[in-house]
Write a structure and sequence with these properties.
The protein is mainly alpha-helical and 165 residues long. It has nine helices and two strands. It is globular, with a radius of gyration of 18 Å. The relative contact order is 0.16.
């Protein structure tokens, strides 16, 4: 049904038979990131009008999951990992290693296509930043965020997530 497939076409516009056929013909890759790091990144990019991280988090919690922005909506709600069988799940902080593996599996030259990543530096920076920003939150906000992202935390292994505590 390629005549119906354009860059703007969303999966929900197809019937179940078409969806199964399409998903079976693609290599499906899901990129995941610790929910707290996604929130920090969104806040740092200036999305929203909150003056502090704590007030930004409160806005996110007040809006709720159903009206959440794609930038912070739980991944389980966005990407449906329980319904779609992804071929690869790539974790932020391990991009160089995992993308290299993906490119090799696809038969593509790794060195010429893979940009220079500094995964260990990114992990350290976001670890430090997460600790600083998380400490700004009240105990109630921390609990609410853990609940807000409970399905992401259950579905993916975010080994050093402050929300898992």
């Amino acid at each position: 049904h390629s005549w119906r497939h354009t860059l703007e076409t969303q999966l929900r516009e197809f019937n179940l038979t078409e969806i199964k056929a399409m998903l079976g013909s693609y290599t499906k890759v899901l990129f995941v990131r610790d929910p707290l790091q996604r929130l920090i990144s969104t806040f740092m990019q200036g999305t929203g009008s909150s003056p502090s991280f704590s007030s930004f988090v409160q806005d996110v919690l007040d809006i709720g999951q159903h009206n959440a922005s794609v930038a912070w909506k739980p991944l389980v709600r966005l990407c449906q990992p329980c319904l779609i069988q992804y071929d690869y799940v790539v974790m932020f902080g391990f991009l160089r290693q995992e993308l290299g593996h993906l490119l090799r599996r696809a038969g593509l030259p790794v060195d010429s296509l893979l940009p220079e990543f500094t995964d260990s530096q990114a992990r350290w920076t976001y670890g430090w930043l997460s600790e600083q920003m998380f400490s700004e939150l009240s105990l109630q906000q921390k609990r609410q965020l853990s609940h807000f992202y409970r399905w992401d935390l259950a579905a993916f292994t975010f080994s050093n997530s402050f929300l898992s505590d």
